[in-house]
Amino acid sequence: MERTALIRIQEYWLLKIQIDLLNEVEKFMKKNELNPTQLKQKSGFSRSQLMKIYLQLYRML
After folding, report:
1. Considering 9, 38, 51, 57, which has the largest number of Cβ atoms within 10 A of its Cβ?
2. How many angstroms separate the CA atoms of 51 and 2, rounded?
3. What is the DSSP letter of 9?
4. Which distant-in-sequence residues (6+ apart) come within 8 Å of 37 by Cβ?
């Protein structure tokens, strides 16, 4: 499939956003030297909420 056709597909953009979001979270964690527990505390989300987000994003990949 050509790139011009690919970028017209909604799923392409959804997947790109998900990958970009995961990459940004990982960069944030590395930059601030945070482990998942510290990310949870800093973000205000519960552990289960963060896990749910990660699993939903990874499931789409």
Report:
1. 57
2. 35
3. S
4. 47
